[in-house]
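Standup notes
- DV: blocked on the single-chain target, sequence here:
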Amino acid sequence: MKNIISSSQLAAIITIVFVFILDYYIPPGTAIGMLYLAALPMLIDSSKKTIVIFAAIISFLILENLAYFGSTRTSVYIDRALSVLSVWVVAYVIIRYRIVRDRKEGIKEKQRKALEEMLFITNHKVRHPISNMLGIAEEIEDPQHNPQEVRQLLKALYPQLKELDDFTRQLTLFMDQQKTSL
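- DV (later): unblocked, structure below
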């Protein structure tokens, strides 16, 4: 069964409830509304919708306290307005941070996949001609071969060298494509 609420969301709710209770016991005008901001960073791994919902709830609670107690002092209204504004600024910053973080993770994943592909290609396409050339080189070193057999062995090296050359060109093209796609 999937959890309805994450542990970070539960921590944010507990923080909000604590600040809400504190806000009722401390007289208006003491900037307690700013303490609600502590709950928002706890939601950094939550969805954009969840962050906006929490910001709206916090804004309501900040303004509800003002409506409940009321005040004739302008500073209390300014304090509450700044608290609400701060909540939405922090929510916006968290959402923007998540977008940037997700983009960076996407780029890292793309780079990781490209590196894996390059390693796979290198391992299979380079090792094959090199192992063939090593086998031919061992045969050439055998003193029992006559000059005609040595010439045939040298001719057998050409396709292996061509295959290695083709691969290095493909690898260079692949790396250029990866560089331009990032």
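- Follow-up: The longest helix spans residues 74-141.
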